[in-house]
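We close this part of the discussion by returning to an individual protein. The sequence in question and its C-alpha coordinates are set out directly beneath this paragraph:
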Amino acid sequence: MTDLVRRQLAQSIETMSQVLADDIIHAAVVEAARITAGAMKAGHKLLVCGNGGSAADSQHLVAEFVSRLTIDRPALRAIALTTDTSILTAVGNDYAYEEVFARQVEALGQTGDVLLAISTSGNSPNCIKALKLAHTLGMHTIAYTGNGGGKMKPEADINVIIPSSVTMNIQESHLALEHIFCMLVERFYFGEDFGSKPQHLAE
Protein backbone atom coordinates (compact mmCIF):
# COMPACT_ATOMS: atom_id res chain seq x y z
CA MET A 1 0.00 0.00 0.00
CA THR A 2 2.85 2.41 0.70
CA ASP A 3 3.98 1.79 -2.90
CA LEU A 4 0.60 3.08 -4.07
CA VAL A 5 1.04 6.21 -1.95
CA ARG A 6 4.48 6.87 -3.44
CA ARG A 7 3.32 6.14 -6.99
CA GLN A 8 0.33 8.47 -6.79
CA LEU A 9 2.35 11.25 -5.18
CA ALA A 10 5.01 10.90 -7.86
CA GLN A 11 2.33 11.13 -10.55
CA SER A 12 0.85 14.24 -8.93
CA ILE A 13 4.26 15.86 -8.65
CA GLU A 14 5.05 15.05 -12.29
CA THR A 15 1.87 16.76 -13.49
CA MET A 16 2.49 19.80 -11.28
CA SER A 17 6.10 19.93 -12.51
CA GLN A 18 4.84 20.10 -16.09
CA VAL A 19 2.47 22.90 -15.10
CA LEU A 20 5.32 24.70 -13.35
CA ALA A 21 7.42 24.56 -16.53
CA ASP A 22 4.64 25.64 -18.92
CA ASP A 23 4.85 29.37 -19.69
CA ILE A 24 1.67 29.20 -21.79
CA ILE A 25 -0.34 28.11 -18.74
CA HIS A 26 1.23 30.83 -16.60
CA ALA A 27 0.43 33.53 -19.16
CA ALA A 28 -3.14 32.28 -19.52
CA VAL A 29 -3.76 32.43 -15.76
CA VAL A 30 -2.33 35.96 -15.58
CA GLU A 31 -4.45 37.13 -18.51
CA ALA A 32 -7.58 35.51 -17.05
CA ALA A 33 -6.92 37.32 -13.77
CA ARG A 34 -6.31 40.66 -15.50
CA ILE A 35 -9.58 40.44 -17.43
CA THR A 36 -11.54 39.28 -14.37
CA ALA A 37 -10.16 42.06 -12.15
CA GLY A 38 -10.95 44.63 -14.84
CA ALA A 39 -14.49 43.33 -15.11
CA MET A 40 -14.95 43.44 -11.34
CA LYS A 41 -13.56 46.98 -11.11
CA ALA A 42 -16.12 47.99 -13.74
CA GLY A 43 -18.95 46.59 -11.60
CA HIS A 44 -19.24 43.22 -13.32
CA LYS A 45 -19.02 39.73 -11.82
CA LEU A 46 -17.50 36.29 -12.18
CA LEU A 47 -19.72 33.26 -12.78
CA VAL A 48 -18.18 29.81 -12.29
CA CYS A 49 -19.48 26.36 -13.28
CA GLY A 50 -18.41 22.71 -13.43
CA ASN A 51 -19.55 19.18 -12.62
CA GLY A 52 -18.61 16.81 -9.79
CA GLY A 53 -15.18 17.70 -8.44
CA SER A 54 -15.19 20.73 -10.72
CA ALA A 55 -18.48 21.83 -9.13
CA ALA A 56 -16.72 21.66 -5.76
CA ASP A 57 -13.87 23.71 -7.26
CA SER A 58 -16.41 26.28 -8.48
CA GLN A 59 -17.79 26.72 -4.99
CA HIS A 60 -14.33 26.68 -3.41
CA LEU A 61 -13.04 29.39 -5.75
CA VAL A 62 -16.11 31.59 -5.32
CA ALA A 63 -15.77 31.30 -1.54
CA GLU A 64 -12.24 32.69 -1.81
CA PHE A 65 -13.51 35.70 -3.74
CA VAL A 66 -16.53 36.45 -1.56
CA SER A 67 -14.85 35.72 1.79
CA ARG A 68 -11.08 36.00 1.45
CA LEU A 69 -8.08 33.97 0.39
CA THR A 70 -5.30 35.04 2.80
CA ILE A 71 -5.77 38.74 3.52
CA ASP A 72 -8.74 40.84 4.66
CA ARG A 73 -10.18 42.95 1.83
CA PRO A 74 -13.61 43.86 0.45
CA ALA A 75 -15.67 41.01 -0.98
CA LEU A 76 -15.36 40.47 -4.72
CA ARG A 77 -18.37 39.69 -6.93
CA ALA A 78 -18.51 36.00 -7.80
CA ILE A 79 -21.28 33.40 -8.08
CA ALA A 80 -21.05 29.61 -8.33
CA LEU A 81 -23.70 28.22 -10.69
CA THR A 82 -23.48 24.83 -8.97
CA THR A 83 -25.17 25.50 -5.64
CA ASP A 84 -28.90 26.09 -6.08
CA THR A 85 -30.46 22.62 -6.11
CA SER A 86 -33.91 23.98 -6.96
CA ILE A 87 -32.58 25.65 -10.13
CA LEU A 88 -30.39 22.70 -11.07
CA THR A 89 -33.17 20.14 -10.65
CA ALA A 90 -35.87 22.31 -12.23
CA VAL A 91 -33.81 23.02 -15.34
CA GLY A 92 -32.58 19.43 -15.49
CA ASN A 93 -36.14 18.14 -15.24
CA ASP A 94 -37.96 20.72 -17.37
CA TYR A 95 -35.31 21.14 -20.08
CA ALA A 96 -32.16 18.99 -19.90
CA TYR A 97 -29.08 18.66 -17.74
CA GLU A 98 -27.10 20.20 -20.58
CA GLU A 99 -28.98 23.45 -19.90
CA VAL A 100 -28.37 23.79 -16.14
CA PHE A 101 -25.57 26.35 -16.49
CA ALA A 102 -26.66 28.08 -19.69
CA ARG A 103 -30.05 28.85 -18.17
CA GLN A 104 -28.35 30.55 -15.23
CA VAL A 105 -26.00 32.44 -17.53
CA GLU A 106 -29.09 33.66 -19.40
CA ALA A 107 -30.65 34.84 -16.13
CA LEU A 108 -27.57 36.30 -14.42
CA GLY A 109 -24.97 37.02 -17.09
CA GLN A 110 -24.50 40.49 -18.52
CA THR A 111 -22.21 42.04 -21.08
CA GLY A 112 -18.80 42.52 -19.46
CA ASP A 113 -19.20 39.68 -16.94
CA VAL A 114 -16.81 36.71 -16.88
CA LEU A 115 -17.71 33.02 -17.11
CA LEU A 116 -15.16 30.48 -15.89
CA ALA A 117 -16.05 26.90 -16.85
CA ILE A 118 -14.11 24.02 -15.26
CA SER A 119 -14.00 20.53 -16.79
CA THR A 120 -11.24 17.92 -16.55
CA SER A 121 -12.29 16.39 -19.87
CA GLY A 122 -12.99 19.67 -21.62
CA ASN A 123 -16.09 18.03 -23.08
CA SER A 124 -18.85 18.72 -20.53
CA PRO A 125 -21.95 19.56 -22.65
CA ASN A 126 -23.44 21.90 -20.03
CA CYS A 127 -20.18 23.88 -19.80
CA ILE A 128 -19.96 24.09 -23.59
CA LYS A 129 -23.51 25.44 -23.84
CA ALA A 130 -22.83 27.97 -21.08
CA LEU A 131 -19.67 29.20 -22.83
CA LYS A 132 -21.48 29.55 -26.17
CA LEU A 133 -24.30 31.54 -24.61
CA ALA A 134 -21.86 33.72 -22.67
CA HIS A 135 -20.26 34.72 -25.97
CA THR A 136 -23.60 35.81 -27.42
CA LEU A 137 -24.14 37.97 -24.32
CA GLY A 138 -20.78 39.71 -24.69
CA MET A 139 -19.19 38.04 -21.67
CA HIS A 140 -15.52 37.10 -21.29
CA THR A 141 -14.96 33.34 -21.18
CA ILE A 142 -12.29 31.22 -19.48
CA ALA A 143 -11.93 27.43 -19.51
CA TYR A 144 -9.93 25.34 -17.06
CA THR A 145 -9.55 21.90 -18.63
CA GLY A 146 -7.23 18.93 -19.27
CA ASN A 147 -7.02 16.40 -22.10
CA GLY A 148 -5.87 18.97 -24.63
CA GLY A 149 -8.81 21.28 -23.93
CA GLY A 150 -11.49 19.14 -25.52
CA LYS A 151 -14.52 20.70 -27.21
CA MET A 152 -14.46 23.61 -24.78
CA LYS A 153 -11.17 24.95 -26.12
CA PRO A 154 -12.58 26.84 -29.14
CA GLU A 155 -15.46 28.20 -27.06
CA ALA A 156 -13.24 30.03 -24.53
CA ASP A 157 -11.32 33.28 -24.91
CA ILE A 158 -8.67 31.99 -22.51
CA ASN A 159 -7.73 28.35 -21.96
CA VAL A 160 -5.86 26.92 -18.97
CA ILE A 161 -5.17 23.35 -20.10
CA ILE A 162 -3.47 20.91 -17.74
CA PRO A 163 -1.13 18.54 -19.65
CA SER A 164 -2.70 15.34 -18.33
CA SER A 165 -5.53 12.90 -18.99
CA VAL A 166 -5.74 11.72 -15.36
CA THR A 167 -8.76 13.31 -13.71
CA MET A 168 -7.38 13.52 -10.17
CA ASN A 169 -4.11 15.08 -11.34
CA ILE A 170 -5.94 17.61 -13.49
CA GLN A 171 -8.12 18.54 -10.51
CA GLU A 172 -5.10 18.95 -8.23
CA SER A 173 -3.48 21.32 -10.71
CA HIS A 174 -6.75 23.16 -11.26
CA LEU A 175 -7.10 23.87 -7.56
CA ALA A 176 -3.55 25.20 -7.28
CA LEU A 177 -4.07 27.46 -10.29
CA GLU A 178 -7.49 28.59 -9.04
CA HIS A 179 -5.88 29.81 -5.82
CA ILE A 180 -3.21 31.60 -7.83
CA PHE A 181 -5.90 33.06 -10.11
CA CYS A 182 -7.64 34.54 -7.05
CA MET A 183 -4.33 35.95 -5.74
CA LEU A 184 -3.64 37.57 -9.10
CA VAL A 185 -7.13 39.07 -9.32
CA GLU A 186 -6.56 40.61 -5.89
CA ARG A 187 -3.32 42.20 -7.06
CA PHE A 188 -4.79 43.51 -10.31
CA TYR A 189 -7.77 44.85 -8.36
CA PHE A 190 -6.14 46.28 -5.23
CA GLY A 191 -2.59 46.92 -6.46
CA GLU A 192 0.61 44.93 -6.90
CA ASP A 193 1.69 45.48 -3.29
CA PHE A 194 -1.47 43.78 -1.96
CA GLY A 195 0.41 40.58 -1.21
CA SER A 196 2.98 42.37 0.94
CA LYS A 197 0.47 42.82 3.75
CA PRO A 198 0.63 40.40 6.71
CA GLN A 199 -1.21 37.17 5.99
CA HIS A 200 -3.75 35.61 8.33
CA LEU A 201 -2.98 32.28 9.90
CA ALA A 202 -5.47 29.50 9.30
CA GLU A 203 -8.26 29.54 11.84
